[in-house]
Amino acid sequence: MDKPQWGYWCECWTEDLSEDQPTLRASFDAYSAPQADRWVAVALRTISPALDPDASEEAWEWLYDGRIETRRALLRSEPCTVTITQADTRITWTIRPALFLPLAHRQAANLPSCAYDFKPRPSY
Question: Where residue 102 falls among pLDDT bands split at 50, 70, 90?
């Protein structure tokens, strides 16, 4: 990738409802709307057998009905959120449009002198 590219930044957060701070569990850079919503769908299908009946119903409701609306919103470049609650834990997936910038190519750059001081560890 040598030019900026549009895509979607995806995150999965969990929150213990008895505490204040959510915890970031995973993130993913998707380069298409189908790839972004597929990331959420795979996660929901994977965890659904372990969810209580209400949370499982929330998950499958999104998989059957909500996923279509999510995809449409992403194609309109709108951010989306999918949330299920299991007992005292809220799990939230967020998908936001993002512009991914290319990283600087290091081969043509002059590295600082300390970069050449690195000595690899011998393999045993």
Answer: confident
Percent share of the chain, pLDDT over 70: 81
What's the rounded Cα separation, in Å, for the pair 44 and 93?
10
Phi, psi of 8 (to 5 degrees): -140, 135
Q: Which tokens belong to 15? A: 């929150």
Residue 94 identity: T
Cβ–Cβ under 8 Å, residues 67 and 97: no
CA 15 to chain centre: 16
Q: What is the pLDDT of residues 28-53, one digit of tens each?
A: 999 999 999 999 999 999 999 999 99
